[in-house]
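Review box. Two proteins, two foldings.
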Amino acid sequence: MNAAEQAKNIEVASKIAAVVNLFKSEFPDAKVDLKPWMNDQDTRELVDPDSIDIGFHFPGRSRLLQSRSILIQIRFYQDPVEGYRRAIGVEAAGYDHSGQQWHFSTVENWNFLGQTEPAVESAQKLKDFCQQIFDLFNQSF
């Protein structure tokens, strides 16, 4: 779900702002998009209500990231008994004018898959960024 729609209270809004700052500290040229999903019926059916989705766009195609835009999706689990909510995964995908270039997921083995992959140093920065997201959202556990 669009990050702008998930910022329902000061705690979540602050954490979304922290995610944006973490990304921009590694990739300062990026512009943030807190509403990466279109607001139409077809798109709404595909959107995960238990996620925070943020887009980042570069002024041109980044050679180091092998993309022009990156979509970050932070997935959450709400425990029905204990009531806590925690981040359980981060998905990232890099896009350029010809479509998706790579995909990355923390769910299994933290590998990049796709036609191209970010440069080694940039790939490590993205992995570190994902770890920082877990630290941010799950710090009380």
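Next protein.
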Amino acid sequence: MKINLSGHHVDVKDSIKEHLNEKFSKIATHFPTLISLDVTISKEHGEYQVELRTNYEGSRISASGTNDVMYPAIAIAKKKLEAALKHRKGQLKADKHEKPVSTTPEIAHEIVQEMKLI
């Protein structure tokens, strides 16, 4: 998975990139169809905001986290992203199951007639 990192009022250093690669390696193994992850880290009014955006199976998924310290903000956003991805994966699995087919009233009446109930 490719991580596209950008900073707004934040210097993006190699240590931040390494931390993000370490944090999101688990997500990459659980969701192998993820191609890229866009990460935006910004600092406004003394508070860090981390926004994560990705495409997963045809849906745009995003999550954000805020904190006074950057690394906990990344952890909060990661947790929200994992929850959103799991929810989407559950939706996709639910669509694969066979839906029950209801019979029309005329067919149901014929079935009851053939049963010869007494």
